[in-house]
C-alpha cells in the first residue's frame, strides 16, 4: 500500500518542477535578446551603407548625375534593391528649406546645401507576429539607415 503522507513530504522532484516552470520564460527572454541583437545589427548595416554613399559625395562634385551612382552604391552595400534607397538634397537659406537645390539665396542670407541618404530594409524576427508594436501586417519590421552631410 502506498503512503501518500510520505509522498507529500518528499522534496526530491521539486527542483525539476521548478525548472520546468522557469525554462519557457528563460527561453523566451533568450530568443528576444537574440532578435534584438539581430535587428540592431541589420540597422547598423543599413546605416553603414548610407554612410558609404555619403563618402562618395566627398569624392565627387554634387550634381544630379551622381545621385544615381550614390543610390546604386548604397543599395549594393546594404544588399537591398535600389528602390529602397532615397537620396534627398536641398538648399537652406537662413535655415529655411528651398524648393530648388540649384537656386541662389538672396544677398546677405546664410546658405547651406545638404544631402541625405535613407536606406530602408525589412527585418524578419525569429517569431514574426503582427501583434508586436511597430510591426508590419506580416510581422516584419521596416528599418532605416540614414546618413547626411552638408555639402556647401
Strand content: 15-25%
- Low-pLDDT residue intervals, each spanning 5 or more residues: none
| Order of strands in the sheet with most strands | 2-1-3-4
Q: For the residues shown, what is the average pLDDT?
A: 86
Number of strands: 4
Please state the CA-atom Rg, rounded to the nearest Å. 27 Å
Helicity level, as a percent range?
40-55%
Characterize the overall form.
rod-shaped
Return the structural class: alpha+beta
What is the terminal separation in angstroms? Answer: 93 Å
Reading the helices and strands in chain order gives: HHHEEEE
Supply the number of helical segments: 3
Offer a few descriptive terms.
3 helices; 152 residues; 4-stranded antiparallel sheet; rod-shaped
What would your notes on this structure say?
With 152 residues, the chain is of the alpha+beta class. The chain has helices at 4-9, 14-59, 64-78; strands at 85-93, 96-97, 111-123, 141-150. It has a four-stranded antiparallel β-sheet with strand order 2-1-3-4. It is rod-shaped and about 100 Å long.
In short:
This protein is α+β, with helices and mostly antiparallel strands and 152 residues long. It has helices spanning 4-9, 14-59, 64-78, and strands spanning 85-93, 96-97, 111-123, 141-150.
Topology summary:
Blueprint: H1 4-9, H2 14-59, H3 64-78, E1 85-93, E2 96-97, E3 111-123, E4 141-150
Antiparallel strand pairs: 1-2, 1-3, 3-4
Helix pairs in contact: 2-3
